[in-house]
Amino acid sequence: MSLFTPFAFYQAGGGPGPYVPTNAEVVAWVTATGIATDTLIEAVDDFVSGCKTDSIWTLLDVVYPFVTDSATTATIKDQFKYNLVDTTTFELSYTGSSTVGYAGYTNGGAGAMIGTGFIPSVDASANDLSVAVYTTSPNPGADVIDIGGGVSSNYTYISAGRFASGNNQQISTLGANLQRNLINPTFTTGLIHGNLNFGTATRTMYQRGVSVGSNAGSSGGSISQRMLAIGCFWYGNSILSATSKQYQFAHIGKFFDATQAANLNTRVNDLQTAVDVIYATSRAVGIDPDAAAFLTATGITDPTISSAIDTLVTDLKGYSLWSKFNAIYPMVGGTSTTTKYNLVDPQDTDAAFRLNFVNAWTFAS
Question: What's the rounded Cα separation, in Å, for the pair 40 and 61?
Fold first, then answer.
């Protein structure tokens, strides 16, 4: 009988290797963020490809996917801050308390926000603007703004559940005197998406890709001359109406029509669904997504083994070695089922390099 210990196949050249993004924007984003988890990279790459297929990518000036493969707060904030469309522009800045992790960005309430650096009067196209956030937090029953900025009569903001005048309202205000108020909105989670055509003074609000109303009125001033901030209304140089809500995605760009808004909602939902699958175990136990995928596939729940696998993966990524491996076999768990899986790609297929045992083998933890 021979005793086998954990081993790995190192990628010296050729072979399947790590996932290679098909979009140049994603290649740049991976380089900037340092994200090394193939499934996350592929999910983001699919989002970009889908938006290009739907001819809406050019309407997106700024996209923050809020995905991570780290458990370290400082690293997560660094990964969250980059604009997927162009990593050299509109880098996020953090103010006040916040929580970041596999569940996205959670604003810290009073005094907290993340600044986008995007000033509509400077950075938006001449006459139109689109702003959106994806949130899983329900209406907080308070006067809060999801994303906004401005001063005096020149402002831009959207809210998926502002509490004003004693009524539970959904308000979208994009440009002075353009707003939509709904009493008791059907839903306040998902993709909240406001649009303004400032030239025609038309404002349209979408939730989950469905229009909740459109109106027109006098322009009443110029478009916002202050930076847009996520999690509050950046009014002048003050943080107003700050939220304690959780966000998984944010976007700033150009005006969307009804079909384009529905397509964006589909693509964002597809991204969130893919990320939710990747994070299913990670969110529950707070470990690296690749380690979590392996533990889910093997059915291993032992905390000592789980911690060891997580440490192995995070250390390899920390030393920039993870992407160099085609296969790693930790050989833990004490059964043929737990031993056969490839940590790099823990699928029960030959294409994922699972082990196949011939004749009699003995397994032990």
Answer: 22
Q: For residue 314, what are the contacts with CB-CB under 8 A and spacing of at least 6?
A: 70, 71, 288, 291
Task: Give per-residue pLDDT as tens, 139-198.
Answer: 666 677 888 888 766 777 777 655 454 443 444 444 444 455 544 455 568 898 888 876
Q: How far apart, in whole angstroms, are the C-alpha atoms of residue 330 and residue 309?
A: 8
Higher pLDDT, 165 or 315: 315
pLDDT at 32 (0 to 100):
97
Residue 305: CB partners within 8 Å, gap ≥ 6? 332, 333, 365
Contact 67, 77 (CB under 8 A): no
| Contact status, residue 214 vs residue 205, Cβ threshold 8 Å | yes
pTM for the full predicted model: 0.75
Could you tell me whether strands 147-151 and 233-235 are parallel, antiparallel, or unpaired per DSSP bridges? parallel
Residues found in the chain: 365
| Listed residue (105, 130, 288, 293) closest to 206, CA to CA | 130
Sequence-ordered alpha helix ranges (H) in the chain: 24-33, 38-53, 73-80, 120-123, 258-285, 289-298, 303-318, 336-339
Contacts by residues 345-350 (CB-CB < 8 Å, ≥ 24 positions apart): 345/38, 346/293, 346/294, 346/296, 346/297, 346/298, 347/297, 348/297
**Which is higher by pLDDT, 290 or 134?**
134
- Which residue from 205, 284, 6, 247 is spatially nearest to 116, judged by alpha carbons? 247
Which pLDDT tens digit goes with each residue over 73-123? 899 999 999 999 999 999 999 999 998 988 899 998 899 999 999 998 889
Which tokens in the block code for residue 322? 């993870």
Sorted by sequence, the CB contacts under 8 Å of residue 311 that are 6+ apart come out as: none
CB atoms within 10 A of CB 8: 17
Is residue 138 very low, low, confident or very high in pLDDT (cuts 50, 70, 90)? confident
Distance CA 9, CA 4 (A): 15
> Which H or E run includes 246?
strand 246-253
The label of the residue with tokens 């979590």 reads 292
